[in-house]
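Q: What would this complex look like in 3D?
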Amino acid sequence: MAMHSNQNYSLKSSNSFNIKASCSRIYFPSSLAELQQLPDLSAGNTSDKFYILGEGSNTLFVESQAPIIIQPKFNGISILEQDDRFVVTVGAAENWHDLVCFCLEQGIYGLENLALIPGSVGAAPVQNIGAYGVEFADFCQEIQWYEFASKTLQSLTKQACRFAYRDSIFKQERYNKGLITQVTFNFPKAWQANLSYAGLDILAKDSTAKQVMAQVIALRSSKLPDPKELPNAGSFFKNPIVNDADFAQLQQKYPKIPHYPQKNGEIKLAAGWLIDQAGLKGFRHGAVGVHQQQALVLVNYGSDLGADIISLAKYIQRKVAAKFSVSLIPEVRMITHKGERSFSSLSDSNPIEDINSIRGNRDD
Ligand code: NAP
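A: Here is my prediction, written as structure tokens for the whole assembly.
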């Protein structure tokens, strides 16, 4: 049977920012045979003209024209129970939060801190999603990967995926070389709640996984806008990581600056705090803005244009750099008609002017 595909496809309901964009072609492969029918995507000059889309919750279509889209449709969940663990294999197109709920209902614990993260299971490994002290990699056993060049399925161990903070081999060496079809998790039966983050530390040490999940859902719902009501893509920027010397200078100037030492000695800062302190929490420009409750989330009040979000993000980046000399890098992926591009390479067609600096100049 021929693979399901469409021409001139609107992506407005396929991205959580609700930006108006369309692609000339979209493919929905759901089997190895269908993957093998995809056009040759390994050839050098076409490799950056397509984008693999999950549920579009970490994607910004920067232009009204998007590249060719591949949206994998591999579904299904299977559970293998062993003496000391559950091995759970999940199709890439399954919804992440539904999987978290399903596992907890089956008495399989571990993903509770990752409740309510938008997106698909297949997207989770790409940026190694994380929240409240737990990350995807903690429970990953292996990834099933379709390689475009050889047209074969391969198994990648957790080690081979090289997971790091919001990073993996899928954003590095294997970028655009194939796609994730299936994820296998390993959940040890010996389970312990991870209550290290603020907001969860109020729970009793013997809390159940379901209680932890309920608290994570309550915390997230109180701060994060529901994309169905107020379109957004979750955290827009990554938390910046700085070295010791730069941090010492910052802390001298801003003694209250939140900071989290990393295993390698570097120091993670909270991007949301930096944006808030730059005076931008709740800032609104035209039809886009910075969320009132959580400054790390950019929201779309009704713009059709990805460029409006870009202008806002560049403005935030300038303001934070001016105040703290720290460079904010987006976590959200930037997609042009030619494929993905870095944020720094994107031009700002309609820069937001800084009212304070205009006033400042006049006073001089
Ligand atoms: P928060 O409690 O206001 O803290 C702000 C930042 O500080 C977080 O991003 C977190 O970094 C870091 N942090 C807080 N406590 C920490 C600890 N004990 N050890 C190390 N780092 C710590 O955070 P929030 O914005 O409400 O988010 C809560 C959690 O949900 C965080 O883990 C956050 O990453 C996650 N989240 C992710 C997204 C997304 O789209 N990626 C959106 C919303 C929330 P980390 O980000 O490294 O955890």
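A: To summarize the key features: The longest strand covers residues 178-188. DSSP finds seven helices and 22 strands in the chain.
Q: Very helpful, thank you.
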